[in-house]
Amino acid sequence: MNYQFDFAWLATYWPVFVDGVLMTVRLIVIGGVVGIALGTFCAWARSLGPAWLKPAVVAYVELIRNTPFLIQLFFIFFGLPAAGFRLTEVEAATLAMVINLGAYSAEIIRAGIEATPKGQFEAGASLAMSPIQTFRHVVLIPALQKIWPALASQVVIVMLGSAVVSQIAVEDLTYAANFVQSRTFRAFEAYFISTAIYLGLAILLRFALLRLGHVIFPHKRAAR
Amino acid sequence: MTQFTLMDILRNLVFATQWTVILSLVSFIGGGLLGLLLLFMRIGKTRWLPPVVKLYTEVFQGTPLLMQLFLAFFGLGLFGIDVPPWLAAGIALILWTAAFLVEIWRGCVEAIPKGQWEASASLGMTYVEQMRHIILPQALKVAIPPTVGFSVQVVKGTALTSIIGFTELSKAGTVLTNATFQPFTVYGLVALIYFALCFPLSQVARILERKMNVAHRH
What CATH superfamily is the domain B6-217? Predict the structure, then answer.
């Protein structure tokens, strides 16, 4: 191997990576918040919602979980305009991430809801709470608390998966690497740097989410 | 100018699907063998091998598969070989699959109660005999549902190899879109074919899991 590694270009091109990181972070923050909200709604609909809504939610969750994110993204960005629904690159990427995370988090949150002891529902009802009130105040928060680590992992997976949004020209971290390597012809170094940044982002994001879990759910109850 | 009928599109997509299936099989089998090797290193008695394998899994699980594909593609090129996309795709997917399988399987081995180790040790079994006769047969049973479940991730992961130029189902979708200007139909069909590959695997994993939970409750 006679290759000479060269990272000197970093002095000129580091702002490209900063912009890329900011876009990746922006996508996962919006996609994460809205995606978990969608997932919560779907989890409610599937385990406690009206009967007519359940098959629709099951179909959505199964369709998304059994197709690649790349194809979902292409369908939204290239396919939907043909049906008269046009989105910008960033909008399409955000929507794809929301839909993807929504399906995965629905399954995770549902597991939390279904692990709730029946007595909790009955206790809520006996306090004259409506089913929605019981869900919101009694069921949802402990359910989220239970599955929070799994949810955090899923958000990290979606963040890593978002690398493919560069394929529809969203200027994220992967796009930055593609851009730099096309200018400097230092492909391996450019991808090496961006891979290292992704690793750092994944570790940071996971840490931040777990900390957030401690803030949102301050009273760590003993099991049951 | 040739016109593509729906049948033409579908025929081309199904033809390309065989490469998705082949690459999935190669990645899953190759990743499984490498994963098994790494598993023994991870749960073995040496002092320095487990942290090395742990680092390996953290790096591969903490970085995008797309980046791993790029690094395999351009990294192998550093050795002065002309890297065909299928080679980079195969290597990256095998390494990635192994990283996930080793963690899944480690969990299964660690789920075996400690008493099983102690009982087999008290029968005078060596470490290898314990593994061979007591631990692995039980761990294998626990490992099958999540392993089948992960195979879905492998099939979906192969879609990314289209980006480094491997011609499989996703790449065929892009090519056909450019030829027909019918992205809605083409990507819709591509999604349905992936669904047809993945959904049965998901269902099998779910059924196996349910069966095992019932068995464990008794």
Answer: MetI-like (1.10.3720.10)
Could you tell me which residues come within 8 angstroms of residue A137 by beta carbon, excluding any fewer than 6 positions away?
A124, A129
- Number of separate helices (H) and strands (E) present in chain B: 9, 0
> Any alpha helices (H) in chain A, and if so which ranges?
10-47, 53-65, 69-74, 80-82, 89-114, 118-126, 131-133, 141-161, 173-184, 187-216
Instruction: List the single best residue of B67, B103, B164 to mutate versus A (max A Cβ within 10 A).
Output: B67
Residue B65 has pLDDT above 70, yes or no: yes
Interface test with B, best of A62, A195, A197, A205 (most B CBs within 10 A): A195
Q: Which two tokens stand for residue A105?
A: 């988090």
C-alpha to C-alpha distances, A102 to A49, A93, A168, B195, B202, nearest whole angstrom: 16, 14, 21, 18, 18
Model pLDDT for residues A93-140, shown as the tens digit of each residue: 999 999 999 999 999 999 999 988 888 888 988 999 988 888 888 899
The CA distance from A111 to A109, in Å, is 5
CA of B68 vs chain A CAs: smallest distance (Å): 8
Q: Which of A3, A177, A202 sits opposite B62 (nearest CB)?
A: A202
User: Which architecture does CATH list for A10-216?
Assistant: Orthogonal Bundle (1.10)
ipTM over 0.95: no
The domain limits of chain B are 6-217
Q: Is the pLDDT of residue A221 over 70?
A: no
CA distance A192 to B102: 24
DSSP state of A4: P
Report chain B's mean pLDDT, rounded to a whole number: 93
As a whole number of angstroms, the distance between CA B8 and CA B186 comes to 11
Q: Does A70 touch chain B (CB under 8 A)?
A: yes
